Amino acid sequence: MSFYFFLLLFLPIGVFVLWSPNGMADRYKGELVRLGLPGALVTLMAVGWMLVGAAAFFVIVRGFVGTR
């Protein structure tokens, strides 16, 4: 179960990269683009992180609800 709690951390990271307040993540996105990654790929990576985090959240909820 602790593995899923670790995967749950990907959810806020993806949200932070996609919707960074006041451009806080623009520096990190810029570094990835300077490394040669296209901007669309960085966005897809953030969406993937969010999906992994959301899936882990649902597995955790299913584990707690399913153990009644």
How many strands appear in the DSSP assignment? 0
Low-pLDDT parts are: none
| C-alpha end-to-end distance | 17 Å
Kindly estimate the percentage of residues that lie in beta strands according to DSSP: under 5%
Key phrases:
4 helices, mainly alpha, 68 residues, 0% strand, elongated
Concise description?
The chain contains 4 helices and no strands. By secondary structure, the chain is mainly α.
Overall description:
With 68 residues, this protein is mainly alpha-helical. It has helices at 2-8, 10-18, 26-34, 39-65. α1 packs antiparallel against α4 (39-65). The model has no long low-confidence stretch (mean pLDDT 87).
Q: How is this fold's topology laid out?
A:
Elements lengths: L1 H7 L1 H9 L7 H9 L4 H27 L3
Helix pairs in contact: 1-4, 2-4
